[in-house]
Amino acid sequence: MSFDTTAYNRQMTHFDGHDSVWLFGYGSLIWKADFDYLERRPAAIRGWTRRFWQGSHDHRGTPEAPGRVLTLAEQADAVCHGMAYRIAPRVFEPLDIREKNGYLRVVTRMDFMDSATPATAEGVVYLAGADNAAYLGPASEAEIARQIAASHGPSGPNRDYLLNLAQALRELGWDDAHVFALERELNALEMAHARD
Ligand code: SIN
Question: Which of 70, 97, 108 best tests ligand 1's pocket when mutated (most atoms within 8 Å of CB)?
């Protein structure tokens, strides 16, 4: 699969005829909602866990020195908390471009974490599978943190992606062992660097 998934995502017909579609965000879509939405609700998807296993050649790194951003990995019994947005279908146009580096729109069920209705909905999540060209895959948390500390791209330093996410998860009251371990590793690296 090529790096640019935009054209592929444009072929999705699953929600044709719908006035609005729920989008589940688990990464930058939690803390950087720079798109129009009709409604925003905390939500969770089941059977998936957040992992910094996707390369970023276009936002938080470069083709020569990719950064690391999130995708989802399948894990039985896992619950991934995030933010759901009800969007007009036209909003997928800019989103497909933002998520073009290997992410595919995938249909998912999400459970809302608030008490409003409906309690659950079918919607879309951008998922970067292990078969995409920008996929980097697992590495130790120390290694991932080192790569994040060293990477910069057109959207800014890779560290900001991680730290903004950790802060957003904390504010929302959600634990995520992988993200908080990486935050600790990154803070330690930056403190050591500041002492040098
Ligand atoms: C998401 O946030 O849902 C997708 C990954 C990202 O853009 O960080």
Answer: 70
**Minimal CA–CA distance to 80: which of 187, 165, 183, 186?**
165
Q: What is the pLDDT of residues 102-116, one digit of tens each?
A: 999 999 999 999 999
Helix (H, G, I), strand (E, B) or coil at 15: coil
Give the CA count within 13 Å in the CB-facing half-sphere of 169: 23
Task: Pick the residue whose CA is nearest to atom 2 on ligand 1.
Answer: 27
pLDDT bracket for residue 81 (50, 70, 90): very high
Q: pLDDT tens digits, residue range 35-53?
A: 999 999 999 999 999 999 9
**Tokens found for residue 55:** 């390369």
Angular region, 17: left φ>0, alpha ψ -120 to 50, beta rest: left
- Indicate the pTM of the whole model: 0.96
CA of 31 to the centre of ligand 1 (A): 9
Burial of 137 (0-12, 13-18, 19+ CB in 10 A): exposed
Cβ neighbourhood burial of 10 (10 Å; 0-12, 13-18, 19+): exposed
In a 10 Å sphere around its CB, with 0-12 CB exposed, 13-18 middle and 19+ buried, how is residue 182 labelled?
buried
> How confident is the model over 67-73, as a mean pLDDT?
98
